[in-house]
Amino acid sequence: MEEQKLDNKRKTILIIVAVLTLTIGVSLAYIIASLQDEARGNASVTSDTVDLLKFEIDKDINLNPNQFNVTEGGENLLDTSVGKAILRANSTNDNATYNYYVYFQINSNDYIYTTTEQTPEIVLTITDPEGNPVTNISGLDYVTSGGVSGFDITTKSGLYTVAELYEITSGSSVQDTIQYWTFTVSFINLDTNQHENGGKTLEGEVILSSEPIYTLANYIIENVYVEDGVNGLYYHDGEGTYTNAELEAGDNSYRYSGANPNNYVCFGTDENPCPVDNLYRIIGVFGDNVKLIKYDYADSNLLGTDGDYYGNYLFDDSSLYRGQHNFAQLATYYWNNSDGMNYSSDDWADSRLNTVNLNTNFINSLGHKWMETIYDNNWILSKVTVVVNTEKNAHGVFVDEFDNNEDIYTSKVGLMYISDYLYGFDSNYWSNNYMDSGDVIDDLADNWLFMGLAEYVLTIDDGNIHPQGVAIYIHWEGIWANMPVSHFGLAIRPTFYLNSNVQYASGDGSIDNPYRIEI
What we know:
Blueprint: H1 2-19, E1 32-33, E2 39-40, E3 44-46, E4 52-57, E5 77-88, E6 96-109, E7 122-127, E8 142-145, E9 148-152, E10 158-170, E11 177-187, E12 202-209, H2 216-224, E13 233-236, E14 253-256, E15 264-266, E16 279-286, E17 289-294, H3 300-303, E18 309-312, E19 331-333, H4 352-366, H5 368-371, E20 377-380, E21 382-384, H6 386-389, H7 394-402, E22 408-411, E23 413-414, H8 418-423, H9 440-443, E24 455-461, E25 470-474, E26 480-484, E27 495-497, E28 504-506, E29 516-517
Parallel strand pairs: 21-24
Antiparallel strand pairs: 1-2, 3-4, 4-5, 5-11, 6-10, 6-12, 7-9, 7-11, 8-9, 13-14, 14-16, 15-16, 16-17, 17-27, 18-19, 20-22, 23-27, 24-25, 25-26, 28-29
């Protein structure tokens, strides 16, 4: 029996090695030294006062589990790298003091827990310059697994702050002051079958910087959000800090609302000024991910004339259109006309708008480096019952029903939900029922998400028994309504979430100075 268990363990490791030679590709050779402009690599920067501050990493961390070093009952596999902050004072004063930041960033991570108990399988241990273990990092749990104490990073990704404004002082112009940060990554050799992690990779890096580093999500939360309503940003904690708590999403998201907040992002290009077709806007921050929607409707150059392409925009009224395209040449698409015979369903997985136009044509138009910044999201096919919503506030019903949806589709690109659109209105209008036209035209000036044309959203009418299935769409008059999924082609705005590690680079979010991200 023991021999059989050992054979199974060896087979598991052999599977991992057969897929890739470096299962844990953790590179820690990425540093930042900055006193003036940001610098990357093993670099030094000399200030005007001739103080010298630099950062170094002694080596990469490499872990290569195989049948020889990971066996049943054997040791954990680990590797260590040391980061150094080095300061030398100028010869005039023989004294210098600076502060710097230390981060650990996980750029990508495919690992999962292979046990039902979610036992940590990759552990990060950090020791500060005083020789003390770092035990508190926001967003990470400090654990002990396989005899190793540290932070569980088995399934984690994103930017994590190890130290802020850490002080380094030098009293000499001839001798360096050196502070050492020790990083150890351990692959925990469990006594269970870990074959589900075969072929997985984790890529991370250490960042030392004299300036704070922000992900775009953290920048919005820490620098733009002040209190509900300021800068058009609302924190939906369900406690009603600005408005009635019952009207909030209650999902701890930060959402932009109102007439025209500064939430523009230039995406897909480094050109300056940013071309109109590369302008996107931030719907909000959801967890660690920023959710973007295309500022203007996508044309056929981006989405193609295959898939669920319908043709040019067919409605005549363009008086409310806020975009900058040639109105007569705007492309439209069915929500789902997958069989081409007007008998399609409301199954988003079958939609060629989903599989072809959004997640093939649009994705390919971006190019690889931009495509890699987009998160593989679990899109929920949200469901509302129009009959109920005519009697009750749409937001409350939507949020209640949203939590119970079970139709989930994983892809990079989708559409906004109807709740995204409704929360785009100024908070004073969140109790309004926009199933009725009423005074909606007057309210539209206070909803930045309204662009003036009929467009589909990723929401269906769960109470309609039409054989084709019925999708929800935003009417060109601003109300929301329903339509069979293959009845007409409507305008489309691709929507997606950025990866949690996407860093803020510059910009104030205005249309003339949109946010830029690091690529």
